[in-house]
Amino acid sequence: xxxxxxxxxxxxxxxxxxxxxxxxxxxxxxxxxxxxxxxxxxxxxxxxxxxxxxxxxxxxxxxxxxxxxxxxxxxxxxxxxxxxxxxxxxxxxxxxxxxxxxxxxxxxxxxxxxxxxxxxxxxxxxxxxxxxxxxxxxxxxxxxxxxxxxxxxxxxxxxxxxxxxxxxxxxxxxxxxxxxxxxxxxxxxxxxxxxxxxxxxxxxxxxxxxxxxxxxxxxxxxxxxxxxxxxxxxxxxxxxxxxxxxxxxxxxxxxxxxxxxxxxxxxxxxxxxxxxxxxxxxxxxxxxxxxxxxxxxxxxxxxxxxxxxxxxxxxxxxxxxxxxxxxxxxxxxxxxxxxxxxxxxxxxxxxxxxxxxxxxxxxxxxxxxxxxxxxxxxxxxxxxxxxxxxxxxxxxxxxxxxxxxxxxxxxxxxxxxxxxxxxxxxxxxxxxxxxxxxxxxxxxxxxxxxxxxxxxxxxxxxxxxxxxxxxxxxxxxxxxxxxxxxxxxxxxxxxxxxxxxxxxxxxxxxxxxxxxxxxxxxxxxxxxxxxxxxxxxxxxxxxxxxxxxxxxxxxxxxxxxxxxxxxxxxxxxxxxxxxxxxxxxxx
Length: 587
Fold this sequence. Notes:
By secondary structure, the protein is α+β, with helices and mostly antiparallel strands. 32% of the residues lie in helices and 17% in strands. The protein has helices at residues 2-25, 29-51, 118-133, 142-153, 174-192, 260-277, 282-286, 303-316, 340-357, 366-369, 418-432, 441-445, 470-475, 548-553; strands at 66-67, 74-77, 80-82, 95-97, 108-110, 158-159, 242-247, 250-254, 372-376, 382-386, 398-400, 451-452, 457-462, 477-485, 493-499, 514-520, 527-529, 534-536, 541-546, 561-568, 577-578, 580-586. The strands form 9 sheets. The chain has a 4-stranded antiparallel sheet. A 3-stranded mixed sheet has the order 4-10-9, covered by helices on one side. The protein has a 3-stranded antiparallel sheet with strand order 19-14-22. Its cofactor is Cu(2+). This is Aureusidin synthase-like.
Protein backbone atom coordinates (compact mmCIF):
# COMPACT_ATOMS: atom_id res chain seq x y z
CA UNK A 1 0.00 0.00 0.00
CA UNK A 2 2.85 2.45 0.86
CA UNK A 3 4.57 1.59 -2.42
CA UNK A 4 1.35 2.33 -4.29
CA UNK A 5 1.08 5.77 -2.67
CA UNK A 6 4.73 6.52 -3.46
CA UNK A 7 4.19 5.59 -7.10
CA UNK A 8 1.19 7.93 -7.38
CA UNK A 9 3.16 10.80 -5.86
CA UNK A 10 6.04 10.28 -8.31
CA UNK A 11 3.50 10.13 -11.15
CA UNK A 12 2.05 13.49 -10.12
CA UNK A 13 5.53 15.05 -9.98
CA UNK A 14 6.36 13.69 -13.43
CA UNK A 15 3.06 14.98 -14.83
CA UNK A 16 3.67 18.47 -13.43
CA UNK A 17 7.17 18.55 -14.93
CA UNK A 18 5.92 17.37 -18.33
CA UNK A 19 3.10 19.95 -18.46
CA UNK A 20 5.54 22.72 -17.52
CA UNK A 21 7.86 21.72 -20.36
CA UNK A 22 4.98 21.54 -22.86
CA UNK A 23 3.68 24.97 -21.90
CA UNK A 24 7.15 26.42 -22.36
CA UNK A 25 7.38 24.94 -25.86
CA UNK A 26 3.87 25.92 -26.96
CA UNK A 27 3.75 29.69 -27.15
CA UNK A 28 0.09 30.08 -28.27
CA UNK A 29 -1.95 31.41 -25.29
CA UNK A 30 -5.14 29.61 -26.31
CA UNK A 31 -3.33 26.26 -26.39
CA UNK A 32 -1.74 26.94 -23.03
CA UNK A 33 -5.16 27.80 -21.56
CA UNK A 34 -6.71 24.58 -22.87
CA UNK A 35 -3.88 22.45 -21.51
CA UNK A 36 -4.10 24.16 -18.12
CA UNK A 37 -7.77 23.19 -18.00
CA UNK A 38 -6.87 19.55 -18.60
CA UNK A 39 -4.07 19.90 -16.02
CA UNK A 40 -6.56 21.18 -13.41
CA UNK A 41 -8.73 18.13 -14.06
CA UNK A 42 -6.03 15.45 -14.12
CA UNK A 43 -4.17 16.39 -10.93
CA UNK A 44 -7.22 16.36 -8.58
CA UNK A 45 -8.26 13.05 -10.14
CA UNK A 46 -4.85 11.56 -9.39
CA UNK A 47 -4.98 12.90 -5.83
CA UNK A 48 -8.43 11.35 -5.36
CA UNK A 49 -7.09 7.98 -6.47
CA UNK A 50 -4.14 8.34 -4.10
CA UNK A 51 -6.41 9.05 -1.13
CA UNK A 52 -9.19 6.55 -1.91
CA UNK A 53 -8.99 3.08 -0.32
CA UNK A 54 -8.05 0.16 -2.47
CA UNK A 55 -9.70 -3.22 -2.22
CA UNK A 56 -7.46 -4.20 0.64
CA UNK A 57 -8.41 -0.99 2.47
CA UNK A 58 -12.15 -1.39 2.12
CA UNK A 59 -14.13 -2.50 5.13
CA UNK A 60 -13.51 -6.17 5.77
CA UNK A 61 -16.30 -8.57 6.70
CA UNK A 62 -16.54 -9.01 10.46
CA UNK A 63 -17.11 -12.75 10.35
CA UNK A 64 -16.20 -14.90 13.33
CA UNK A 65 -13.60 -17.62 12.85
CA UNK A 66 -11.69 -19.39 15.65
CA UNK A 67 -7.92 -19.59 15.52
CA UNK A 68 -7.21 -23.27 16.14
CA UNK A 69 -3.52 -22.57 16.79
CA UNK A 70 -4.28 -20.25 19.71
CA UNK A 71 -5.75 -22.71 22.22
CA UNK A 72 -4.69 -21.86 25.76
CA UNK A 73 -5.62 -22.27 29.38
CA UNK A 74 -8.84 -20.48 30.27
CA UNK A 75 -11.03 -19.91 33.30
CA UNK A 76 -13.89 -22.30 34.03
CA UNK A 77 -14.87 -19.97 36.84
CA UNK A 78 -13.23 -16.77 37.97
CA UNK A 79 -11.31 -18.85 40.52
CA UNK A 80 -10.71 -22.01 38.46
CA UNK A 81 -8.16 -22.32 35.62
CA UNK A 82 -9.08 -25.08 33.18
CA UNK A 83 -7.38 -26.59 30.15
CA UNK A 84 -9.82 -27.92 27.56
CA UNK A 85 -7.47 -27.91 24.57
CA UNK A 86 -7.08 -30.96 22.32
CA UNK A 87 -4.07 -33.15 23.19
CA UNK A 88 -2.55 -32.55 19.74
CA UNK A 89 -1.88 -29.38 17.78
CA UNK A 90 -4.70 -28.75 15.31
CA UNK A 91 -2.72 -26.48 12.96
CA UNK A 92 -1.59 -29.33 10.69
CA UNK A 93 -4.96 -31.06 10.46
CA UNK A 94 -6.53 -31.02 6.99
CA UNK A 95 -9.79 -29.05 6.93
CA UNK A 96 -12.70 -29.77 4.61
CA UNK A 97 -15.70 -27.58 3.85
CA UNK A 98 -18.94 -28.95 5.21
CA UNK A 99 -21.14 -30.83 2.75
CA UNK A 100 -24.86 -31.40 3.28
CA UNK A 101 -25.85 -35.03 3.77
CA UNK A 102 -27.31 -36.98 0.86
CA UNK A 103 -30.98 -35.92 0.63
CA UNK A 104 -31.94 -39.46 -0.41
CA UNK A 105 -30.96 -40.78 3.02
CA UNK A 106 -33.74 -41.27 5.58
CA UNK A 107 -34.51 -38.38 7.88
CA UNK A 108 -33.22 -38.58 11.45
CA UNK A 109 -36.24 -37.95 13.66
CA UNK A 110 -35.58 -36.62 17.16
CA UNK A 111 -38.21 -37.83 19.60
CA UNK A 112 -39.25 -36.47 23.03
CA UNK A 113 -37.62 -38.27 25.95
CA UNK A 114 -40.91 -39.32 27.53
CA UNK A 115 -41.92 -41.26 24.41
CA UNK A 116 -38.76 -43.30 23.85
CA UNK A 117 -39.06 -47.10 23.68
CA UNK A 118 -36.74 -49.79 25.02
CA UNK A 119 -35.27 -50.53 21.59
CA UNK A 120 -34.15 -46.93 21.11
CA UNK A 121 -32.77 -46.65 24.66
CA UNK A 122 -30.78 -49.85 24.07
CA UNK A 123 -29.20 -48.41 20.90
CA UNK A 124 -28.41 -45.08 22.57
CA UNK A 125 -26.91 -46.91 25.55
CA UNK A 126 -24.62 -48.88 23.25
CA UNK A 127 -23.55 -45.78 21.33
CA UNK A 128 -22.70 -43.68 24.37
CA UNK A 129 -20.88 -46.62 26.02
CA UNK A 130 -18.65 -46.95 22.96
CA UNK A 131 -18.10 -43.18 22.88
CA UNK A 132 -17.02 -43.18 26.54
CA UNK A 133 -14.55 -46.00 25.83
CA UNK A 134 -12.66 -44.08 23.13
CA UNK A 135 -9.28 -42.56 24.12
CA UNK A 136 -8.95 -38.80 24.59
CA UNK A 137 -6.75 -38.66 21.47
CA UNK A 138 -9.87 -39.49 19.46
CA UNK A 139 -11.99 -36.36 18.81
CA UNK A 140 -15.10 -38.58 18.84
CA UNK A 141 -14.51 -39.56 22.48
CA UNK A 142 -16.97 -38.43 25.13
CA UNK A 143 -14.33 -36.31 26.88
CA UNK A 144 -13.36 -34.50 23.69
CA UNK A 145 -17.01 -33.93 22.84
CA UNK A 146 -17.65 -32.41 26.27
CA UNK A 147 -14.52 -30.26 26.00
CA UNK A 148 -15.82 -28.63 22.81
CA UNK A 149 -18.32 -26.74 24.94
CA UNK A 150 -15.57 -25.80 27.37
CA UNK A 151 -13.36 -24.52 24.54
CA UNK A 152 -15.91 -22.16 23.06
CA UNK A 153 -17.54 -21.03 26.30
CA UNK A 154 -14.49 -20.01 28.33
CA UNK A 155 -12.43 -18.08 25.77
CA UNK A 156 -9.88 -20.86 25.19
CA UNK A 157 -9.66 -19.92 21.50
CA UNK A 158 -8.82 -16.52 20.06
CA UNK A 159 -10.44 -15.22 16.93
CA UNK A 160 -8.43 -15.45 13.73
CA UNK A 161 -6.50 -12.26 13.09
CA UNK A 162 -7.16 -10.97 16.60
CA UNK A 163 -6.15 -11.46 20.22
CA UNK A 164 -9.81 -11.31 21.22
CA UNK A 165 -11.08 -14.47 22.90
CA UNK A 166 -14.06 -16.17 21.30
CA UNK A 167 -17.24 -16.92 23.24
CA UNK A 168 -20.46 -18.31 21.80
CA UNK A 169 -22.85 -17.39 24.61
CA UNK A 170 -24.85 -14.16 25.14
CA UNK A 171 -25.13 -13.25 21.45
CA UNK A 172 -26.54 -14.35 18.10
CA UNK A 173 -23.91 -17.14 17.98
CA UNK A 174 -25.70 -19.08 20.72
CA UNK A 175 -28.30 -20.95 18.66
CA UNK A 176 -26.27 -21.85 15.53
CA UNK A 177 -23.13 -22.96 17.39
CA UNK A 178 -25.05 -25.32 19.67
CA UNK A 179 -26.92 -26.68 16.64
CA UNK A 180 -23.58 -27.54 15.06
CA UNK A 181 -22.35 -29.18 18.26
CA UNK A 182 -25.26 -31.57 18.75
CA UNK A 183 -25.55 -32.23 15.00
CA UNK A 184 -22.04 -33.68 14.77
CA UNK A 185 -22.41 -35.37 18.17
CA UNK A 186 -25.51 -37.12 16.84
CA UNK A 187 -23.77 -38.24 13.64
CA UNK A 188 -20.86 -39.65 15.59
CA UNK A 189 -23.14 -41.62 17.94
CA UNK A 190 -24.99 -43.11 14.96
CA UNK A 191 -21.78 -44.13 13.21
CA UNK A 192 -20.48 -45.89 16.33
CA UNK A 193 -23.40 -48.33 16.14
CA UNK A 194 -23.68 -48.34 12.35
CA UNK A 195 -27.12 -46.67 12.31
CA UNK A 196 -27.55 -43.78 9.87
CA UNK A 197 -31.05 -43.12 11.22
CA UNK A 198 -30.00 -42.63 14.85
CA UNK A 199 -31.17 -39.32 16.27
CA UNK A 200 -30.71 -37.67 19.66
CA UNK A 201 -33.80 -37.30 21.84
CA UNK A 202 -34.99 -33.95 23.11
CA UNK A 203 -36.06 -33.17 26.66
CA UNK A 204 -39.31 -31.17 26.28
CA UNK A 205 -39.29 -29.36 29.63
CA UNK A 206 -41.55 -26.74 28.02
CA UNK A 207 -44.61 -29.04 27.98
CA UNK A 208 -46.28 -30.65 31.03
CA UNK A 209 -45.41 -34.23 29.98
CA UNK A 210 -41.70 -33.42 29.90
CA UNK A 211 -41.28 -31.28 33.04
CA UNK A 212 -39.33 -33.86 35.05
CA UNK A 213 -35.87 -35.34 34.54
CA UNK A 214 -36.38 -38.14 31.97
CA UNK A 215 -36.42 -41.61 33.47
CA UNK A 216 -33.67 -42.93 31.19
CA UNK A 217 -31.29 -40.26 32.51
CA UNK A 218 -31.65 -41.70 36.00
CA UNK A 219 -29.91 -44.91 34.91
CA UNK A 220 -26.41 -45.76 33.65
CA UNK A 221 -24.79 -44.79 31.35
CA UNK A 222 -26.95 -41.65 31.22
CA UNK A 223 -26.99 -41.01 34.95
CA UNK A 224 -24.59 -38.39 36.28
CA UNK A 225 -23.74 -38.00 39.95
CA UNK A 226 -23.14 -34.25 39.79
CA UNK A 227 -26.82 -33.34 39.92
CA UNK A 228 -29.17 -31.96 42.55
CA UNK A 229 -30.70 -35.05 44.19
CA UNK A 230 -33.66 -33.01 45.46
CA UNK A 231 -34.68 -32.39 41.85
CA UNK A 232 -34.95 -36.04 40.89
CA UNK A 233 -38.37 -37.26 39.70
CA UNK A 234 -41.14 -36.57 40.46
CA UNK A 235 -39.91 -32.98 41.09
CA UNK A 236 -41.19 -30.57 38.44
CA UNK A 237 -38.51 -28.46 36.77
CA UNK A 238 -38.52 -24.76 37.68
CA UNK A 239 -37.85 -22.80 34.49
CA UNK A 240 -37.40 -19.61 36.56
CA UNK A 241 -34.99 -21.18 39.07
CA UNK A 242 -33.02 -18.82 41.33
CA UNK A 243 -29.81 -19.37 43.27
CA UNK A 244 -27.74 -17.27 45.64
CA UNK A 245 -24.16 -17.27 46.86
CA UNK A 246 -23.95 -15.65 50.30
CA UNK A 247 -20.40 -16.93 50.73
CA UNK A 248 -18.06 -19.46 49.22
CA UNK A 249 -18.92 -21.88 52.04
CA UNK A 250 -22.69 -21.51 51.81
CA UNK A 251 -24.20 -21.93 48.37
CA UNK A 252 -28.00 -21.93 48.42
CA UNK A 253 -30.71 -21.99 45.82
CA UNK A 254 -34.30 -20.98 46.31
CA UNK A 255 -37.03 -23.47 45.58
CA UNK A 256 -40.22 -21.88 44.34
CA UNK A 257 -42.34 -23.60 46.98
CA UNK A 258 -45.06 -24.15 44.40
CA UNK A 259 -47.03 -27.36 44.13
CA UNK A 260 -46.70 -29.43 40.94
CA UNK A 261 -49.75 -27.91 39.20
CA UNK A 262 -48.79 -24.33 40.02
CA UNK A 263 -45.20 -24.97 38.95
CA UNK A 264 -46.36 -26.37 35.60
CA UNK A 265 -48.60 -23.33 35.07
CA UNK A 266 -45.79 -20.91 35.96
CA UNK A 267 -43.47 -22.70 33.51
CA UNK A 268 -46.02 -22.47 30.71
CA UNK A 269 -46.59 -18.75 31.23
CA UNK A 270 -42.83 -18.13 31.30
CA UNK A 271 -42.48 -20.01 28.02
CA UNK A 272 -45.21 -17.88 26.47
CA UNK A 273 -43.35 -14.72 27.41
CA UNK A 274 -39.95 -15.98 26.22
CA UNK A 275 -41.25 -17.39 22.92
CA UNK A 276 -44.08 -15.00 22.04
CA UNK A 277 -44.76 -11.77 23.94
CA UNK A 278 -41.15 -10.88 24.69
CA UNK A 279 -39.58 -12.25 21.51
CA UNK A 280 -41.37 -10.61 18.59
CA UNK A 281 -38.22 -9.24 16.98
CA UNK A 282 -35.09 -11.06 15.86
CA UNK A 283 -32.58 -9.56 18.29
CA UNK A 284 -34.87 -10.09 21.27
CA UNK A 285 -34.87 -13.83 20.59
CA UNK A 286 -31.46 -14.45 19.01
CA UNK A 287 -29.30 -12.05 21.01
CA UNK A 288 -27.06 -9.15 20.07
CA UNK A 289 -24.88 -9.03 16.90
CA UNK A 290 -21.41 -10.34 17.75
CA UNK A 291 -18.78 -9.25 15.21
CA UNK A 292 -15.12 -10.08 14.77
CA UNK A 293 -12.27 -8.16 16.35
CA UNK A 294 -11.61 -6.43 19.63
CA UNK A 295 -14.45 -3.94 19.19
CA UNK A 296 -17.00 -6.35 17.76
CA UNK A 297 -18.00 -8.42 20.76
CA UNK A 298 -21.28 -7.82 22.54
CA UNK A 299 -23.07 -9.08 25.62
CA UNK A 300 -26.81 -9.23 25.07
CA UNK A 301 -28.48 -12.66 25.35
CA UNK A 302 -31.84 -13.48 23.80
CA UNK A 303 -34.93 -14.52 25.74
CA UNK A 304 -34.55 -18.31 25.58
CA UNK A 305 -30.83 -18.26 26.40
CA UNK A 306 -31.56 -16.35 29.61
CA UNK A 307 -34.44 -18.57 30.65
CA UNK A 308 -35.16 -21.43 30.43
CA UNK A 309 -31.69 -22.29 29.06
CA UNK A 310 -29.61 -20.84 31.88
CA UNK A 311 -32.14 -21.67 34.60
CA UNK A 312 -32.43 -25.35 33.63
CA UNK A 313 -28.64 -25.61 33.65
CA UNK A 314 -28.65 -24.38 37.25
CA UNK A 315 -31.66 -26.48 38.28
CA UNK A 316 -29.97 -29.72 37.16
CA UNK A 317 -26.50 -28.92 38.56
CA UNK A 318 -25.42 -30.35 41.89
CA UNK A 319 -26.13 -28.54 45.15
CA UNK A 320 -23.11 -30.40 46.60
CA UNK A 321 -20.70 -28.45 44.40
CA UNK A 322 -20.28 -25.01 46.00
CA UNK A 323 -19.79 -21.98 43.81
CA UNK A 324 -21.43 -22.87 40.52
CA UNK A 325 -23.43 -26.13 40.84
CA UNK A 326 -21.15 -28.13 38.55
CA UNK A 327 -21.48 -29.93 36.29
CA UNK A 328 -24.54 -28.59 34.46
CA UNK A 329 -24.56 -25.37 36.46
CA UNK A 330 -21.50 -23.85 34.80
CA UNK A 331 -20.47 -23.84 31.15
CA UNK A 332 -16.97 -25.35 31.31
CA UNK A 333 -18.31 -28.63 32.74
CA UNK A 334 -21.93 -28.69 31.53
CA UNK A 335 -21.43 -31.09 28.61
CA UNK A 336 -19.95 -33.75 30.91
CA UNK A 337 -23.50 -34.59 31.95
CA UNK A 338 -25.30 -36.68 29.29
CA UNK A 339 -28.50 -34.70 29.94
CA UNK A 340 -26.79 -31.68 28.37
CA UNK A 341 -27.53 -33.06 24.90
CA UNK A 342 -31.33 -33.58 25.14
CA UNK A 343 -31.49 -30.22 26.94
CA UNK A 344 -29.83 -28.50 23.99
CA UNK A 345 -31.78 -30.54 21.46
CA UNK A 346 -34.88 -28.93 22.96
CA UNK A 347 -33.27 -25.49 22.74
CA UNK A 348 -32.55 -26.23 19.09
CA UNK A 349 -36.17 -27.34 18.55
CA UNK A 350 -37.45 -24.11 20.09
CA UNK A 351 -35.36 -22.08 17.62
CA UNK A 352 -37.14 -23.90 14.81
CA UNK A 353 -40.51 -23.41 16.51
CA UNK A 354 -39.87 -19.67 16.96
CA UNK A 355 -39.06 -19.27 13.28
CA UNK A 356 -42.30 -21.07 12.40
CA UNK A 357 -44.34 -18.82 14.71
CA UNK A 358 -42.70 -15.64 13.42
CA UNK A 359 -42.76 -16.16 9.66
CA UNK A 360 -39.47 -18.08 9.26
CA UNK A 361 -37.43 -15.00 10.01
CA UNK A 362 -33.68 -15.28 9.57
CA UNK A 363 -30.77 -12.89 10.00
CA UNK A 364 -29.48 -11.69 6.62
CA UNK A 365 -26.24 -10.05 7.82
CA UNK A 366 -23.35 -11.77 5.94
CA UNK A 367 -21.11 -11.31 8.97
CA UNK A 368 -23.41 -13.74 10.79
CA UNK A 369 -24.13 -16.04 7.86
CA UNK A 370 -20.44 -16.52 7.00
CA UNK A 371 -19.10 -16.91 10.53
CA UNK A 372 -17.55 -20.38 10.74
CA UNK A 373 -16.55 -23.01 13.26
CA UNK A 374 -14.71 -26.33 13.14
CA UNK A 375 -16.06 -29.74 14.11
CA UNK A 376 -14.87 -33.31 13.62
CA UNK A 377 -17.35 -35.62 11.96
CA UNK A 378 -17.85 -39.38 12.31
CA UNK A 379 -15.06 -40.00 9.76
CA UNK A 380 -12.52 -38.02 11.81
CA UNK A 381 -12.57 -35.22 9.23
CA UNK A 382 -12.33 -31.66 10.51
CA UNK A 383 -15.20 -29.68 8.97
CA UNK A 384 -15.36 -25.94 8.43
CA UNK A 385 -19.06 -25.17 8.76
CA UNK A 386 -20.73 -21.79 8.33
CA UNK A 387 -23.80 -20.53 10.13
CA UNK A 388 -25.60 -20.31 6.77
CA UNK A 389 -25.14 -24.11 6.52
CA UNK A 390 -27.29 -24.84 9.58
CA UNK A 391 -30.33 -22.64 9.00
CA UNK A 392 -32.45 -25.48 7.57
CA UNK A 393 -32.80 -28.65 9.62
CA UNK A 394 -34.35 -30.27 6.54
CA UNK A 395 -31.09 -29.81 4.62
CA UNK A 396 -29.27 -31.26 7.61
CA UNK A 397 -31.54 -34.31 7.29
CA UNK A 398 -33.17 -34.27 10.71
CA UNK A 399 -36.55 -33.33 12.12
CA UNK A 400 -38.42 -33.16 15.42
CA UNK A 401 -41.42 -35.24 16.32
CA UNK A 402 -44.32 -32.85 16.83
CA UNK A 403 -45.49 -32.02 20.33
CA UNK A 404 -48.21 -29.60 21.41
CA UNK A 405 -47.19 -26.02 22.16
CA UNK A 406 -49.20 -25.93 25.38
CA UNK A 407 -47.57 -22.65 26.39
CA UNK A 408 -48.98 -20.92 23.30
CA UNK A 409 -52.36 -20.72 25.05
CA UNK A 410 -51.01 -19.42 28.36
CA UNK A 411 -51.03 -15.65 27.92
CA UNK A 412 -50.65 -14.26 31.47
CA UNK A 413 -53.15 -12.11 33.34
CA UNK A 414 -52.53 -9.14 35.68
CA UNK A 415 -51.99 -9.87 39.37
CA UNK A 416 -54.72 -7.43 40.46
CA UNK A 417 -57.66 -5.80 38.68
CA UNK A 418 -56.34 -3.07 36.38
CA UNK A 419 -58.46 -0.30 37.89
CA UNK A 420 -57.13 -1.12 41.36
CA UNK A 421 -53.58 -1.11 40.03
CA UNK A 422 -54.03 2.25 38.29
CA UNK A 423 -55.33 3.89 41.46
CA UNK A 424 -52.37 2.62 43.47
CA UNK A 425 -49.90 3.73 40.80
CA UNK A 426 -51.53 7.14 40.68
CA UNK A 427 -51.06 7.53 44.45
CA UNK A 428 -47.45 6.40 44.09
CA UNK A 429 -46.88 9.05 41.46
CA UNK A 430 -48.33 11.77 43.65
CA UNK A 431 -46.11 10.71 46.55
CA UNK A 432 -43.01 10.72 44.37
CA UNK A 433 -43.77 13.95 42.53
CA UNK A 434 -41.46 16.08 44.69
CA UNK A 435 -38.55 13.70 44.08
CA UNK A 436 -38.75 13.82 40.30
CA UNK A 437 -36.71 16.39 38.46
CA UNK A 438 -38.14 17.54 35.13
CA UNK A 439 -39.67 14.08 34.68
CA UNK A 440 -36.15 12.75 34.19
CA UNK A 441 -36.15 9.62 36.30
CA UNK A 442 -32.68 8.50 35.28
CA UNK A 443 -31.02 11.60 36.69
CA UNK A 444 -32.83 11.28 40.00
CA UNK A 445 -32.31 7.55 40.57
CA UNK A 446 -29.02 6.66 38.86
CA UNK A 447 -25.61 8.12 39.58
CA UNK A 448 -22.91 8.37 36.89
CA UNK A 449 -21.49 5.14 38.32
CA UNK A 450 -24.80 3.28 38.10
CA UNK A 451 -27.09 1.90 40.75
CA UNK A 452 -26.41 -1.20 42.87
CA UNK A 453 -29.02 -3.96 42.83
CA UNK A 454 -28.58 -4.69 46.52
CA UNK A 455 -32.33 -4.20 47.06
CA UNK A 456 -35.53 -3.98 45.06
CA UNK A 457 -35.30 -1.06 42.64
CA UNK A 458 -38.49 0.71 41.63
CA UNK A 459 -38.24 3.60 39.18
CA UNK A 460 -40.29 5.55 36.65
CA UNK A 461 -39.36 5.41 32.96
CA UNK A 462 -40.73 7.85 30.40
CA UNK A 463 -42.15 6.60 27.10
CA UNK A 464 -41.21 8.60 23.97
CA UNK A 465 -44.24 7.37 22.00
CA UNK A 466 -47.78 6.85 23.26
CA UNK A 467 -50.99 5.62 21.64
CA UNK A 468 -49.25 4.00 18.71
CA UNK A 469 -51.39 2.59 15.92
CA UNK A 470 -51.70 -1.12 15.22
CA UNK A 471 -49.47 -0.75 12.17
CA UNK A 472 -46.83 1.13 14.14
CA UNK A 473 -46.80 -1.61 16.78
CA UNK A 474 -46.45 -4.29 14.12
CA UNK A 475 -43.52 -2.48 12.53
CA UNK A 476 -41.74 -1.48 15.75
CA UNK A 477 -41.60 -3.35 19.04
CA UNK A 478 -41.40 -1.18 22.13
CA UNK A 479 -38.55 -2.45 24.28
CA UNK A 480 -37.50 -1.77 27.82
CA UNK A 481 -33.72 -1.59 28.02
CA UNK A 482 -31.89 -2.26 31.27
CA UNK A 483 -28.57 -0.92 30.10
CA UNK A 484 -25.05 -1.06 31.43
CA UNK A 485 -25.43 -4.15 33.65
CA UNK A 486 -22.00 -4.55 35.21
CA UNK A 487 -20.96 -7.69 37.09
CA UNK A 488 -17.51 -6.87 38.53
CA UNK A 489 -16.91 -10.40 39.77
CA UNK A 490 -17.76 -13.43 37.68
CA UNK A 491 -20.75 -14.63 39.70
CA UNK A 492 -24.20 -16.05 39.23
CA UNK A 493 -26.61 -13.12 38.93
CA UNK A 494 -30.36 -13.20 38.47
CA UNK A 495 -32.99 -10.49 38.68
CA UNK A 496 -36.51 -10.22 37.33
CA UNK A 497 -38.06 -7.18 35.65
CA UNK A 498 -41.67 -6.11 36.18
CA UNK A 499 -43.83 -3.26 34.90
CA UNK A 500 -46.50 -1.39 36.89
CA UNK A 501 -46.31 -3.70 39.91
CA UNK A 502 -48.27 -2.76 43.02
CA UNK A 503 -47.12 -5.66 45.24
CA UNK A 504 -43.63 -7.04 44.65
CA UNK A 505 -44.00 -9.76 47.31
CA UNK A 506 -46.34 -11.89 45.20
CA UNK A 507 -44.61 -11.43 41.85
CA UNK A 508 -43.47 -14.29 39.63
CA UNK A 509 -43.66 -15.01 35.88
CA UNK A 510 -47.30 -16.12 36.15
CA UNK A 511 -48.43 -12.50 36.13
CA UNK A 512 -48.72 -10.11 33.19
CA UNK A 513 -46.54 -7.54 34.96
CA UNK A 514 -43.54 -9.84 34.32
CA UNK A 515 -41.44 -8.34 31.50
CA UNK A 516 -38.51 -10.74 31.61
CA UNK A 517 -35.55 -12.04 33.56
CA UNK A 518 -31.79 -11.61 33.53
CA UNK A 519 -29.73 -14.72 34.28
CA UNK A 520 -25.93 -14.62 34.20
CA UNK A 521 -24.05 -17.93 34.54
CA UNK A 522 -20.42 -17.47 35.44
CA UNK A 523 -18.20 -18.75 32.65
CA UNK A 524 -14.74 -17.49 33.53
CA UNK A 525 -14.19 -15.64 30.26
CA UNK A 526 -13.65 -12.39 32.16
CA UNK A 527 -10.11 -13.55 32.87
CA UNK A 528 -8.33 -15.40 30.11
CA UNK A 529 -4.95 -16.92 30.89
CA UNK A 530 -2.36 -16.35 28.16
CA UNK A 531 1.31 -17.16 27.76
CA UNK A 532 2.47 -13.69 28.65
CA UNK A 533 -0.32 -12.03 30.55
CA UNK A 534 -3.78 -12.15 32.00
CA UNK A 535 -6.29 -10.28 29.88
CA UNK A 536 -9.27 -8.68 31.51
CA UNK A 537 -12.24 -9.22 29.21
CA UNK A 538 -15.58 -7.95 30.43
CA UNK A 539 -18.33 -6.04 28.71
CA UNK A 540 -21.38 -4.54 30.28
CA UNK A 541 -24.66 -6.16 29.34
CA UNK A 542 -27.80 -4.62 27.89
CA UNK A 543 -31.01 -6.50 28.66
CA UNK A 544 -33.68 -5.81 26.02
CA UNK A 545 -37.26 -6.81 26.79
CA UNK A 546 -40.17 -6.56 24.36
CA UNK A 547 -43.14 -4.97 26.14
CA UNK A 548 -45.67 -3.99 23.46
CA UNK A 549 -48.05 -6.82 24.30
CA UNK A 550 -47.49 -6.35 28.03
CA UNK A 551 -48.51 -2.67 27.79
CA UNK A 552 -51.58 -3.64 25.81
CA UNK A 553 -52.65 -6.18 28.45
CA UNK A 554 -52.03 -3.70 31.29
CA UNK A 555 -53.94 -1.00 29.38
CA UNK A 556 -50.89 1.27 29.64
CA UNK A 557 -50.34 2.04 25.96
CA UNK A 558 -51.57 5.60 26.40
CA UNK A 559 -49.46 6.33 29.49
CA UNK A 560 -46.55 8.73 29.25
CA UNK A 561 -44.48 6.64 31.64
CA UNK A 562 -44.34 3.22 33.28
CA UNK A 563 -43.15 2.06 36.68
CA UNK A 564 -40.37 -0.52 36.42
CA UNK A 565 -39.30 -2.83 39.23
CA UNK A 566 -36.00 -4.74 39.25
CA UNK A 567 -36.32 -7.60 41.72
CA UNK A 568 -32.99 -9.19 42.79
CA UNK A 569 -33.09 -13.00 42.89
CA UNK A 570 -29.48 -13.83 43.72
CA UNK A 571 -26.79 -12.69 46.12
CA UNK A 572 -24.62 -11.74 43.16
CA UNK A 573 -26.88 -8.73 42.63
CA UNK A 574 -25.30 -7.04 45.67
CA UNK A 575 -22.19 -6.08 43.68
CA UNK A 576 -23.99 -5.71 40.35
CA UNK A 577 -24.73 -2.22 39.04
CA UNK A 578 -27.11 -0.92 36.39
CA UNK A 579 -26.47 2.30 34.48
CA UNK A 580 -30.12 3.03 33.81
CA UNK A 581 -33.40 2.15 32.14
CA UNK A 582 -34.90 3.52 28.97
CA UNK A 583 -37.46 2.85 26.26
CA UNK A 584 -36.36 2.15 22.69
CA UNK A 585 -38.01 0.81 19.56
CA UNK A 586 -36.78 -2.00 17.38
CA UNK A 587 -37.91 -3.07 13.93
